Amino acid sequence: MHWHIFCTVIDNYGDIGTTWRLARQLTYAHQQQVTLFVDDLNALAPLVPETDTTAICQTLHGITVQHWISELPDIQPAPVVIEAFACTLPEQYRAEMVKNGSRCINLEYFSCEDWVAGCHGLPSYQSDGLKKWFFFPGISAQTGGLLREENLLAEKNAFCANQQTQNVWCHQWQIPIPQANSLRLSLFGYENNALPDLLTQLSEQPHLVDAYCPAGKLQSSAQTLFPTQSLETGKTLTLGKLRLHLIPFLPQAEFDRLLWLCDLNFVRGEESLARAIWAGKPFVWHIYPTDDDAHWDKLTAFISTYAMQPALAQLNKEWNQQVLTTDTVDNIILTLPKLTQISQETTRQLSQQNDLCRQLINFVQSK
Ligand code: TRH
């Protein structure tokens, strides 16, 4: 079956990150033919370094990527069209969809709020007769699941069990090999005023800490701790027992391994959150903040649905408030083995559900 996926990049990497991952899964795991229409190739390039940001149309990893800048070339709509995150389809194309009887899915943002289960899978009636449905990612059985590659957990287990593989991988991606028995953290996030406190509290722990911060917004928040240093990718900064590694932004296909390498993962947005869930390690989610503060409801709903342990829930809240209390980090460190065990078990349980791509295909076939 042929699929067209439309994505407008609002900000950051979440929109393109999700649609690119979906395109890959449809192509590789389900042998579907996919064209991804995206309006900003510069957002795709860090995730897929082979991207030619000047090409109108290119094939990347078996997926046709069409730069959606203005008028689309004269193309027939596919039988299934994914309108990611309620982006607006081109008028002419939409009219053709109605004529052809294409099915349109509005792939929505991940959320665990109560109303989502009631809206997932509902038809969205259109005055021009377009056949359209809502599809919501989620972690409850009443929602559409999360994207998860078929062999993801097996790959993760193999990586985590093999020190040599980890070292080779670190070397390949310019990531300093963690010190023996250190506590390892990944730090992906938006700017955050709590970062200096977090790093200071970690540096005062009795054991060594390796913190990996990929190039991006959060790196700049470390500046107040290192006022005389320039924060360049590739550098390692030292504070007491802590080493802060400013590492390159990785291709999307490698990002999981950073999470697998670490004991505690800080992520942001919905796409990296899903990856942190599959990593089976305790994590802290810096949710994308909205002007109307709706993100707090979303965060609270997630913490409750995921049944996050209190110490971890506390750190999640404080990280989003950007103020840490003194014993929050201590509580995490003290309970880390237990938190890890629980995270692994939750991941195992969630992986019993069909992943989003499988659920989406089943849904489309049922229509
Ligand atoms: O980039 P984000 O902040 O995207 C956000 C959210 O999706 C939010 O909901 C949306 O409304 C807003 O943008 C406009 O966070 P997210 O969703 O986690 O996407 C990050 C992607 O970047 C994800 O696919 C993982 C990937 N990534 C890499 O590929 N390499 C890296 O080194 C890192 C750190 C991330």
Essential attributes:
13 helices, alpha/beta, six-stranded mixed sheet, 40% helix, 367 residues, 2 domains, seven-stranded mixed sheet, Rossmann fold, single chain, binds 2'-deoxy-thymidine-beta-L-rhamnose, 13 strands
Care to describe what's here?
The chain has 367 residues and is of the alpha/beta class. The protein has 2 domains: 159 residues, Rossmann fold (3-Layer(aba) Sandwich), CATH 3.40.50; 199 residues, Rossmann fold. The chain has 13 helices and 13 strands. Helix 1 links the parallel strand 1 and strand 2. Helix 1 packs across helix 9 and helix 11 crosses helix 12. The protein starts with a strand and ends with a helix. It binds 2'-deoxy-thymidine-beta-L-rhamnose. The site of 2'-deoxy-thymidine-beta-L-rhamnose has 21 residues, from helix 1, helix 8, strand 12 and helix 9.
Just name the CATH architecture of the largest domain: 3-Layer(aba) Sandwich
Mean pLDDT across the residues is 96
Biggest sheet, spatial arrangement of strands: 3-4-2-1-5-6-7
What is Rg? 21 Å
